[in-house]
C-alpha cells in the first residue's frame, strides 16, 4: 500500500499513476476519511486526558459522561479506519518514472532480442503432439481425472522438470540465494497483505473458505510473507531466496485462450526468486534478477526477447516489470516465460517488513524504514518445457536434450515411443 502521508501530499500524482494502470481510485474519499480520522484521533486524546483527570479527582459522574463519549468516539474511529484501510488497499503501486504510459499490452517495449529463431527443414510439431509422441505429456487422462487445464507429466518429462529445477537451484545457491520449499497454502488474510487480491485478483485464486486458506499462484506469495512483522539489519541485505513449489491459478478471464496444451494451466511447478533490499539498491537488484533470467535462457540456447511492461500491463503491485518471452516455433511468435518485478515498499508496508539502516543500530528512537521487495521467475517449468520441446525437435519427433541439462537427465535425446 502507499503511505497515506504520500497520498495526502500528492493526490494528483496518485490519481494519475492509478489511471495509467487503468485503475480508478477514490482519492477524494480517502482524503476525507483521513481528515476525519486525524481529527477524531485528536478529540479522543483530549477525552482520554479528561477521563484521567476525572479519575484522579474522583469525579464519578464526570467520568461516566466522558467514558460514554470515549466509547462512542472509539467506535466511530474504528469504523472510519476500517473503511479507510479498505480504500487504501485498493490503491495500486505507482508506475516507476521510466515506465512507458500505454493503453494495453500492445504498447509494451521490446528492449532486446537474443538469439535467432531456428529455421526448420520440416513441418514443426507443437508441444502437444511432441508430448504425445514422446509419451511425456498426457492431457486426455488428466482431463478425465481433474478436468481441463491439467496435465500428467511422465517419463523423461519428469526428468526434464527436475533437471530444470536442479540447474536453477545449483546456479542460484552459488549466487548466495537461500533455497526454500514454502507452503502452498497460506492464510487468505496474509494473501491480501501480499497484494494480489485487489481488482479481481482474488478471482484467479483457489480459496478454501472453510479453513480461511488460499493456494499460492507463485512461491513468491508465501516467501515474501515469511518475514512479515520483522526487521532486517541493513548489513544483512540483500536477503535472497530461491523457492520451488507448485502454483495454482484459476486462469479467470482466459476463457478460450491458450486452451491447447500446458501453456496456461491450473497447476504448474515453478522456481521463483525473491529478494529483500534497501530502496537505494532495489533498481540494480531488479537488473541483477533479470540478468539471471537471461543467463538461464542463454544456457538453454533458446531465442528470446526482453519486454518492458507499459503502465496498463504492469499489474497492481508492480512499479516496474520485465518479461522474458521465448520463441515458440509452432506459433511463430514469442511467448511469456518469466517476469522480473520491482515492488518498491508496496508489499512491505502491507506486511510490515522493515530494515534498520546502518549507523542507527543500537540507537533508540530512530526510525526504521520499509524494505523494498522484488521477485523474478527462475523457471516456470511447464512453459520452459514447451520452449525446449519445440525448439529442440527433430524431423522424426525426437527432442534433443539441451546440453546444459544432460548431466541431470543422463540422456542426450528423447525419442518417440510411438509413431504417427
Give an account of the 3D structure.
The protein has 420 residues and is α+β, with helices and mostly antiparallel strands. It has 13 helices and 18 strands. It has helices at residues 4-9, 11-20, 27-56, 60-89, 127-134, 139-146, 156-174, 188-194, 219-224, 282-300, 346-351, 381-391, 406-409; strands at 109-114, 137-138, 152-153, 178-180, 185-187, 207-208, 213-215, 231-233, 239-248, 267-277, 304-308, 320-328, 333-342, 354-356, 369-370, 372-380, 399-400, 413-414. The strands form five sheets. An eight-stranded mixed beta sheet has the order 1-11-12-13-16-10-9-4. A hairpin with a 4-residue loop joins strand 12 and strand 13. Helix 3 (27-56) runs antiparallel to helix 4. 38% of the residues are buried.
How is the CATH topology of the largest domain named?
Answer: BirA Bifunctional Protein, domain 2
What is the SS-derived class?
Answer: alpha+beta
Q: What multimeric state do the chains show?
A: single chain
The shape is: elongated
CATH-defined architecture of the largest domain = 2-Layer Sandwich
CATH class of the largest domain: Alpha Beta
The major pleated sheet works out as:
8 strands, mixed
CATH homology superfamily of the largest domain: Bira Bifunctional Protein, Domain 2
How widely separated are the two ends?
A: 55 Å
Strand proportion:
15-25%
Q: How many beta-strand elements? A: 18
Number of helices: 13
The residue-averaged pLDDT reads: 93
